[in-house]
Structure formats: C-alpha cells, structure tokens
Specification:
Elements (H helix, E strand, L loop, with lengths): L1 E5 L8 H15 L3 E6 L5 H6 L3 E4 L6 H17 L4 E4 L2 H14 L3 E5 L15 E4 L2 H9 L7 E3 L24 E5 L8 H12 L6 E5 L5 H9 L7 E5 L5 H6 L2 E4 L8 H9 L2 E5 L4 H4 L7 E3 L4 H13 L1 H10 L9 H15 L2 H9 L1
Parallel strand pairs: 1-2, 1-4, 2-3, 4-5, 5-6, 6-7, 8-9, 8-11, 9-10, 11-12, 12-13
Helix pairs in contact: 1-13, 3-4, 6-11, 11-12
Length: about 350
C-alpha cells in the first residue's frame, strides 16, 4: 500500500508528531511505501533513514499558503499513486479533504487533541481514528457516526525514534519522583508541586524532577521556589530523550487535567517506573484501568500526595507497582498500532482498490 501522512510539521516535543512519525516508520517495516507531507522539522533525517520521502506542504492558515498546499497535495497524490491519505491535525484534514474527494482517495484522520473545539473537523475523514476509548466516545457526541469511527490506542514501544537511545539510567536522588511533559496548564504540574510539598514534610529525602519546557516554565519555577521543599525540586528543562530519566526514576507522575492518550505513559511503563496518573481521558486505559498504574482524581493535590506517600512509606509497595507497570505491556507496541491502523485503511477502501494495491 502507498500511504501519505499529512501533518503540520515534524518537530520534536509534540505528541501528535511523535505518534505520526512512529506510525509511518512502523508501516515501512511492515512492507508499505510511505510518504510524509509537512513543513518539515527535526525528524526528517529519521524519516529519510527509514525510506520515507518528505514532501513539503505549507500549513500556515493564510489563503495563499492554503492554495499552494492544495495544489502540492494534489500533485503528490497523483505523482506517487497514493492509496490512502492519513491526516493528523485539523489543518491537515481541511487541506486533504477536497483533494481526496476529487481524486477518490480515502482520507483517514486521527484525533490526537480531542480537547480542542476544532477537533470536530476530524470528522471529515472517510474513517476517523480515536487514540483512546474516551476520545472515541467524545467524537460520537460530536456527531461522528460509529460506523466510521475506530479506536486505535496509542503505543510507542519499539518505535524507530528509540533506535540508538541510551539505556543507561540517569543517576537521580532516590526516592525520585519524575514528571515529563509540556509546561502548560493542561498537564497539571502545579498540582504535583503542591502534592510534593505535602508529602515532603513526611519524606524529606524525596526529590522531584521536572523534565520539559513550555510557556509557563518561569511561573512554575517561581511557584516551586516559594515552597519549603524547593531545594529538592529540579527543573531539568527540555531533552531530546527523557527515557534515561525514566530508567532512573522510582515514580512517574502525570497529573494531567486533559490528556487524550499520552505516549509518555507507555514510555514510563516500558522503563519500569511505578506510575501515578490522573483519572482523565485516555490515562486510565493506558494504565489498564488501575492494573498497571495508580489513578488519582485530577486537580486534587491532597489525593495525589496521599498516593505518593503510600508508595514512599513502603519500599515493597513501590517495588510491587514497578512490577505491575509491565502488565500487558506488549499491547503498547508501535507494531500493534501500525497493524490496527492498516486494518482501518483497508476498511475505508473499496475491494477493487485493495486488490489493486495488493497486486503491485
């Protein structure tokens, strides 16, 4: 099959980009011919190494750029005889929709950021992929018919992005608590800071590491500096690969207020952390509804502090939850994601088109 992925760019530190790049590379490994249409970015070399051609498609939301994007996508679909187009963001879906209609090519859309109002536009797809059950239910409420909606749970284990990464654990002060994510309100970092302040009163040897960047970095650093536990809070900043921090951490915490299906949870579980996450959106599903990680209510620092305290007070309990993080870990592989996505493609194509693709 010839697959064309469309997304706004291929820069790091964007979850939907990581998911699209992982999927594209996995599809190549399964024997398919894959193209990536975007404005380019950090992963272009990785894509090229995996045999994926990058096609420049502007994504700026201005009429002249959108017109150029329409013509560029039209040419690319014809030139490479594309069987299916897969759009990963709203602008990509809007650009691809009329061209796919014109050329009779199925358009697949993946809803990565369901919390955005514009996610309704992803319903333009011939088939719509939701990255978790909760996202699927939300898209149905937005009017997407169940017959065109498929859930393919995010997973990233075995991705090409991980090739050559360091497997050496980062030396962290134990007991260590780790957060990895963007520093913006949706990720709930202030709740974790408040929870750490509470738990630190009883467990003064605990240390909190914060990996990530974002628009509220200075605000969050100022909040942390005003806490009595400030000397045991480290802002690491951004890193191209947070996995060594996960390997070195005892507890991984994701206190999000909204998170459709965060890839970081599969990475933290792969690293063998005890995982604590807020019970919102796709987090419970990625933690096997409490069998592979502990769940706490969102926006509740006291409940989060209590859960952290339970892990810190008993090394045997911490060890138990590190082991439980491996429960059904094989379900979070990128190969499983790729195969389920290919099934969605097949369901969107006519039998004649499938036969033509298979005959090449």
């Amino acid at each position: 099959m010839r697959i064309l992925h469309v997304l706004n760019h291929t820069r790091r530190l964007n979850g939907h980009v990581h998911a699209a790049v992982d999927l594209a590379c996995a599809q190549v490994k399964l024997g398919h011919e894959v193209f990536m249409a975007s404005e380019g970015g950090d992963f272009d070399n990785l894509l090229e190494t995996n045999g994926i051609k990058t096609i420049f498609i502007p994504h700026q939301r201005k009429i002249p750029h959108l017109v150029r994007a329409l013509f560029a996508l039209h040419r690319a679909i014809g030139k490479y005889d594309v069987d299916v187009v897969h759009a990963h963001m709203m602008t990509s879906a809007v650009i691809a929709f009329p061209i796919c209609k014109l050329r009779g090519v199925p358009l697949i859309t993946t809803v990565h950021n369901e919390f955005e109002k514009s996610a309704t536009l992803m319903g333009l797809g011939t088939r719509v992929i939701a990255v978790s059950d909760v996202v699927g239910a939300s898209m149905q409420r937005r009017g997407v018919r169940p017959s065109k909606l498929n859930v393919v749970l995010n997973g990233t284990i075995g991705s090409s992005r991980a090739t050559g990464r360091s497997e050496e654990p980062r030396p962290l002060r134990s007991p260590s608590i780790l957060f990895v994510g963007g520093l913006h309100p949706r990720k709930g970092l202030p709740d974790l800071l408040d929870a750490f302040e509470i738990v630190h009163r009883s467990y003064s040897t605990a240390h909190l590491y914060i990996v990530g960047e974002g628009p509220l970095r200075e605000e969050y650093k100022a909040k942390a500096a005003a806490l009595q536990s400030a000397s045991d809070i480290t802002f690491v900043g951004s890193t191209t690969d947070p996995f060594p921090y996960m390997l070195g951490a005892d507890i991984f915490v994701l206190p999000s207020h909204a998170d459709p299906a965060p890839l970081v949870l599969s990475e933290a579980r792969e690293a063998g952390c005890a995982v604590v996450g807020s019970s919102v959106d796709g987090i419970p599903q990625l933690l096997e509804h409490g069998k592979a990680g502990l769940l706490v209510p969102p926006r509740d620092p006291v409940a989060l502090a209590d859960m952290l305290g339970q892990l810190l007070e008993a090394p045997s309990r911490l060890s138990e939850w590190r082991q439980k993080s491996q429960f059904r870990i094989e379900h979070l592989t990128i190969e499983r994601v790729a195969r389920e996505t290919l099934d969605v493609y097949a369901s969107a194509k006519s039998p004649a088109a499938v036969a033509t693709a298979m005959a090449r």
